[in-house]
Each structure stands twice: as structure tokens, then as C-alpha cells.
Design brief:
The protein is an alpha/beta fold. The chain is built from four helices and 15 strands. It has a single domain, classed as 3 Solenoid (UDP N-Acetylglucosamine Acyltransferase, domain 1). One of its GO terms (molecular function) is serine O-acetyltransferase activity.
């Protein structure tokens, strides 16, 4: 789970990425993930206040808020990430791609699992909100602006407000550089 792996993933998914150096220097979504990894280590070491300070610095510099208590898999790519919010108990699988304005939010103030679980190879469109302790299965696509309040099985297409689950009629794996 390293910087080179993240950069390679971004280059695979973003046709505008011209070089590894450009991605390393300019991609705020990756910068936010790198700051998150440091804050998460602090969180797990029970240095909670310091972890929150680091996450807020990352938010200030990137416009992306990732709680240090969240669990994030390998190669998360946040494209045009301004306004992304990932809550404390969110769980994100490997090779997830999300766009600007995405919220993985909670629906209760109780100290329980209250944020979404997102499977592997999920694409979350701009402005989508996934709310509560729900699960979005592997290889799913959440449409832009969707509000997801119920769990969805693998290979779902989620669109609308509230989001309706539809079977995928298109294989998005080739579009996003995945091998399923």
C-alpha cells in the first residue's frame, strides 16, 4: 500500500494524468489519502487528538475530509476531490474511485457503526451521498447525485433520490481499468 501503487492507480483511471510526477505533485485526492494514512496510524496508536489535528490540516489543504478512524483499502482514488467527506466508521474496499462532493455519512449520533461500507472496485459519482450503516457490494456504480440509504448487492447500479438498485447492463470494469 504505497505511494507508487497509488500513483499507478491514478494514472490508470485518469486519462488526463500525463506523468507520475504530475500526479504526485498535483492530485489533491491522493494527497488527502496520504495524510489520512498518517492520521490513521496516529488514531490506532490512541493519539486521537493529534490524529484529528492532522486530518483537519489535510482538509484545509485539500478540501477533502477523511476521519482518521475510517478504514480505507488500497488504491482509493478521489478524482476532483473537493468536498468529499468520509466519516469515522466508514469502510472502503480496494480500488474504489470517487468524485467530488461525495459523502459517506452517518445517520445517528450513537457511538456505533454508523457510516457506509463500500466494497471493492466501486465507483461513486459526483455529489452522491451514502448514508448510514449500509453496504454497497463489490463492482457497483453509484450515479452522480444519488442518495443511497439502503444496502445494495454486488454489481448494482444505484441511481436516484432515494437511490434505486438496478442491474448493470454495462461492464464498467474495462472503462475504469479493472480486471474483474
Amino acid at each position: 500500500m504505497g505511494v507508487r501503487d497509488d500513483i499507478a492507480g491514478a494514472r490508470r483511471r485518469d486519462p488526463a494524468a500525463r506523468s507520475a510526477f504530475e500526479v504526485w505533485l498535483l492530485y489533491s485526492g491522493l494527497h488527502a489519502v496520504w495524510w489520512y494514512r498518517f492520521a490513521h496510524r496516529l488514531w490506532r496508536a490512541r493519539l486521537r487528538l493529534l490524529a484529528r489535528v492532522v486530518s483537519q490540516l489535510a482538509r484545509f489543504f485539500t478540501g477533502i475530509e477523511i476521519h482518521p478512524g475510517a478504514t480505507i483499502g488500497r488504491r482509493l482514488f478521489i478524482d476532483h476531490g473537493m468536498g468529499v467527506v468520509i466519516g469515522e466508521t466508514a469502510v472502503i474496499g480496494d480500488d474504489v474511485m470517487m468524485y467530488h462532493g461525495v459523502t459517506l455519512g452517518g445517520t445517528t449520533a450513537n457511538p456505533v457503526k454508523r457510516h457506509p461500507t463500500v466494497g471493492d472496485r466501486v465507483v461513486i459519482g459526483a455529489g452522491a451521498s451514502l448514508l448510514g450503516d449500509i453496504t454497497v457490494g463489490d463492482d457497483s456504480v453509484v450515479g452522480a447525485g444519488a442518495v443511497v440509504i439502503r444496502s445494495a448487492p454486488p454489481r448494482s447500479l444505484l441511481v436516484g433520490v432515494p437511490a434505486a438498485v438496478r442491474p448493470q447492463k454495462h461492464d464498467y470494469s474495462t472503462e475504469f481499468g479493472w480486471e474483474i
